[in-house]
């Protein structure tokens, strides 16, 4: 067994274990339907967390994700309601806008040598503020296209459902794996996370890569905002508060090292699924308060960070 | 600009850092198909000149021309695209990526737009086999020793070199055999018309491969010479600006060693990676550790210091059994380890020279017994003076020092902790000839005051010069022990090769 895949094995086995525990305790838990619902319910988080994975791999962090999700939802709903846009150009608009927003944050981080934490924190306030300026109250979305897309999907055995948001999330996952492990860009991201100074001396274009990483994260956040708008059929400036933290938690539980350089995109998927399965378990139980989800995730995070420390220590000793 | 076969020409290059004029109007001419040594004391400006040539630093003045046209590389990538490939001082590779990725970063072989991992791994393996490195290229880089990493960095640089290859102290952690095979590769490249810049502090290596020599001192050009006509003595005096004084010292013979008290003893001690072995160090004695790469020198130092656990046998310090479960216990007990890989285990980059120096002493005292600032400054200033560390200020971040001066700071860190037994793993790596002699003198003086010393070194000359006893390692076991007048380069070499 390859040591570097260890965190990935741990995460995926933990997911399987939790799923089995649920299946043993509750009938109807261990079904394809519940499994697929994990994707349907968390598609937007999967997308946002995958973007976050690249940022964390490069040794940075992006706190603006939740606000970007809200902002793209608000912009879409306002474009649709007040300006009579068709959803498709509206989507293209927020994706471009998101990408530019991320690129701007990346450029500030690189050229002014500022902490990603501070710059994206500012980005978070900026995007949240901007969405309130665009519209303070929730804007409903009513458009045929929305209904069609939301209904689109494939029936699977056992009443399970492969919906449009799941499909988008899976496509994003495939794209991200390709980008991270089969392109030059991916190697650069890992390299900068490993040792930015050495990477520069090996000829890695640091500026271009840093900017691309944040642009990518915000692009995925905007996409996540689009997917999110299909859940709520509205745009609201106070939506998705704290989603960036859920995304960071998913990345870390997925085995990516917070200091950068180590981790896998697939791990992040399992991170989200673990959080989803805990939530499902609690709703099946019915007696537990939903806050237990947060408590369990807090504990998991703690365990995973401790595990990473241990692995890093052992790694340097060997 | 100059003759036709000039590939790289620098004229009047100036580089200033806040408060330091690192390069002051330096000229440098590299011809096609030559190996050109760039020499100078620690802090003379060699690495800075290289970084200016390759776009890591922007020059403040002067001209750099490649094949007669002026160039302005903005970063290493640009320089690579222009055909200048560089192996910078210290290993600058990515610890988290695989060996193959490190070799091919930025020029990965692709197939249908995706990275062809199979081909990349195969080609990396073939490339490294040319350096006698038969290793798993899919393992992360940090699973290998510094020396192997250095070879990987060289292999990467050489395989990329198109017009110019720059090597900044590439041989610092290599042993004789690897150096020889590197030289063969360099000669081969030279014959193919590539211009090679070679920085080193090993003067015999300069004469072994170099055609011409450029010497810098304090950021200014001293001159350019033909290697064949410059004597070593003149070379040294050009570098230092004065003659070199050699230290002589009497070796502690076998008989005398027995009368001294034993400071440290290892009886049939072994770790997971070492065969059981005996070793002893008396007060005031210098014990050298010789052996090839991977022979277990570094592992032995780690074992003594408690970084690696003793799996059997026992260790005694001052006749008391010791067993450390962490390195702080070792420091408190009076041990010091100056590590081989200063970049990874040694320097704390953004912290100041003073902070880096007092680290071990503070650790020994415990963090709650803060060393008064006045004392810290005194200590730092003292060592900056005795080790001749080239810096304007003890509050400068250590990563702004030249490589050799960083090494001196690390040495000072352990000297300041006043250990009873000091372990030095390649202590003079990257240190210039002048400072080398001074450091050896300083160490001798400490030994006269009762310090015991265990020195791992791949420089046989250095071991012969100051060791009272030499332990030779091969394949992770002790194969010979030489003492007193038996110690010579030849006897050590024979023991290493296994023909004693
Ligand atoms: N980033 C930096 N900031 C400030 N000063 C620097 C920086 N890099 C180098 N210097 C200073 O420039 C001078 C030349 O350093 P350089 O690294 O070129 O020396 P060197 O000749 O390579 O020495 P060595 O043999 O020790 O490697 C030194 O005085 C050093 O302190
Ligand atoms: Mg240097």
TrEMBL record, chain A:
UniProt keyword annotations, A-Z: Cell membrane, Membrane, Transmembrane, Transmembrane helix
The keyword Membrane appears for this protein: yes
Membrane-spanning residues: 6-26, 38-57, 63-80, 92-112, 160-180, 211-231, 237-257, 264-284, 290-312
Pfam families named in the record: BPD_transp_2
CDD domains on file: TM_PBP1_transp_AraH_like
Subcellular location: Cell inner membrane
Membrane topology: Multi-pass membrane protein
Main location class: membrane
Family as reported in the entry's similarity comment: Belongs to the binding-protein-dependent transport system permease family. AraH/RbsC subfamily.
NCBIfam families cross-referenced by the UniProt entry: PRK11618.1
Name this protein carries in UniProt: Galactofuranose ABC transporter, permease protein YjfF
Species classification: Bacteria, Pseudomonadati, Pseudomonadota, Gammaproteobacteria, Cellvibrionales
Automatic annotation (TrEMBL), chain B:
Protein name: Sugar ABC transporter ATP-binding protein
Keywords associated with the record: ATP-binding, Nucleotide-binding, Repeat, Transport
SMART domains for this protein: AAA
Listed GO MF terms: ATP binding
Domain of life: Bacteria
Organism: Gilvimarinus gilvus
Pfam families from the UniProt entry: ABC_tran (PF00005)
InterPro entries: AAA+_ATPase, ABC_carbohydrate_import_ATPase, ABC_transporter-like_ATP-bd, ABC_transporter-like_CS, P-loop_NTPase
Domain ABC transporter: 8-243, 257-500
Cited PROSITE patterns: ABC_TRANSPORTER_1, ABC_TRANSPORTER_2
Tagged with keyword Translocase: no
């Amino acid at each position: 067994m390859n040591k570097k895949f260890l965190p990935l094995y741990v995460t995926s086995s933990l997911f399987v274990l939790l799923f089995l525990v649920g299946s043993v305790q509750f009938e109807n838990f261990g079904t394809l339907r519940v499994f697929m619902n994990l994707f349907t319910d968390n598609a937007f988080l999967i997308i946002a967390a995958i973007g976050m994975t690249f940022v964390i791999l490069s040794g940075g962090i992006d706190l603006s994700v939740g606000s970007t999700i809200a902002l793209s939802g608000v912009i879409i709903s306002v474009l649709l309601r007040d300006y009579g846009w068709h959803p498709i150009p509206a989507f293209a608009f927020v994706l471009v806008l998101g990408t530019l927003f991320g690129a701007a944050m990346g450029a500030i981080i690189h050229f002014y040598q500022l902490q990603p934490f501070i710059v994206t924190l500012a980005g978070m306030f900026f995007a949240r503020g901007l969405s309130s300026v665009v519209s303070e109250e929730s804007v409903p979305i009513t458009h045929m296209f929305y209904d069609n897309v939301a209904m689109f999907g494939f029936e699977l055995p056992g009443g399970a459902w492969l919906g449009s948001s799941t499909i988008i999330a899976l496509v994003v996952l495939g794209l991200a794996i390709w980008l991270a492990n089969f392109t030059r860009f991916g190697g650069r991201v890992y390299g900068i996370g490993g040792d930015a100074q050495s990477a520069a001396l090996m000829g890695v274009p640091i500026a271009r890569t840093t900017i691309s990483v944040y642009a990518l994260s915000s692009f995925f956040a905007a996409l996540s905002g689009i997917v999110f708008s299909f859940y709520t059929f509205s745009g609201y400036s106070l939506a998705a508060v704290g989603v960036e933290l859920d995304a960071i938690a998913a990345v870390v539980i997925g085995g990516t090292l917070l200091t950068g350089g180590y981790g896998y995109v697939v791990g992040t998927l399992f991170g989200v699924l673990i959080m989803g399965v805990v939530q499902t378990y609690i709703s099946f139980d019915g007696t537990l308060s939903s806050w237990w989800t947060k408590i369990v995730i807090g504990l998991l995070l703690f365990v995973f960070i401790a595990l990473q420390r241990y692995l890093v220590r052992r790694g340097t000793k060997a | 600009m100059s003759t036709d076969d000039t590939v790289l020409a620098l004229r009047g290059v100036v580089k200033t850092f806040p408060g330091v004029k690192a390069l002051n109007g330096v000229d440098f001419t590299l011809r096609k198909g030559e190996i050109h040594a760039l020499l100078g004391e620690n802090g003379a400006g060699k690495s800075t000149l290289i970084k200016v040539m390759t776009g890591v630093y922007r020059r403040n003045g002067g001209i750099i021309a490649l094949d007669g046209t002026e160039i302005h590389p903005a970063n290493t990538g640009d320089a690579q695209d222009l055909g200048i490939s560089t192996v910078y001082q210290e290993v600058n590779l990515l610890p988290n990526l695989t060996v193959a990725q490190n070799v091919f970063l930025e020029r990965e072989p692709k197939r249908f737009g995706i990275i062809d991992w199979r081909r990349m791994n195969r080609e990396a393996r073939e490339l490294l086999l040319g350096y006698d490195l038969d290793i798993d290229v899919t393992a992360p880089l940090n699973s290998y020793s510094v020396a192997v990493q250095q070879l990987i960095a060289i292999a990467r640089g050489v395989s990329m070199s198109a017009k110019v290859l720059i090597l900044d102290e590439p041989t610092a952690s290599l042993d004789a055999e690897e150096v020889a095979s590197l030289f063969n590769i360099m000669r081969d490249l030279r014959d193919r018309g590539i211009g090679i810049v070679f920085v080193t502090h090993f003067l015999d290596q300069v004469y072994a491969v170099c055609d011409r020599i450029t010497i810098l001192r304090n950021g200014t050009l001293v001159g350019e010479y033909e290697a064949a006509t410059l004597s070593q003595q003149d070379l040294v005096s050009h570098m230092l600006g004065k003659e070199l004084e050699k230290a002589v010292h009497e070796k502690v013979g076998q008989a005398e060693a027995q009368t001294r008290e034993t400071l440290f003893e290892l009886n049939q001690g072994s770790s997971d990676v070492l065969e059981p072995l005996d070793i002893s160090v008396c007060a005031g004695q210098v014990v050298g550790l010789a052996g090839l790469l991977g022979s277990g020198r570094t592992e032995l130092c780690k074992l003594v210091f408690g970084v690696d656990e003793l799996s059997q046998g026992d260790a005694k310090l001052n006749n008391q059994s010791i067993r450390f479960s962490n390195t702080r216990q070792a420091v408190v007990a009076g041990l010091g380890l100056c590590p081989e890989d200063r970049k990874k285990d040694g320097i704390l980059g953004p912290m100041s020279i003073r902070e880096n120096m007092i680290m071990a002493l503070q650790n020994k005292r415990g963090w709650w017994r803060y060393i008064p600032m006045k004392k810290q400054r005194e200590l730092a200033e003292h060592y900056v003076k005795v080790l001749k560390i080239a810096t304007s200020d003890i509050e400068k971040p250590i990563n702004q020092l030249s490589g050799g001066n960083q090494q001196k700071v690390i040495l000072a860190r352990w000297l300041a902790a006043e250990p009873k037994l000091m372990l030095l793993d390649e202590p003079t790596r990257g240190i210039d000839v002048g400072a080398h002699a001074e450091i050896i003198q300083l160490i001798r003086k400490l030994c006269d005051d009762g310090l015991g010393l265990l020195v791992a070194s791949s420089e046989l000359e250095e071991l012969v010069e100051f060791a009272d006893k030499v332990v030779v390692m091969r394949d992770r076991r002790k194969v010979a022990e030489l003492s007193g007048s038996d110690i010579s380069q030849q006897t050590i070499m024979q023991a290493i090769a296994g023909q004693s």
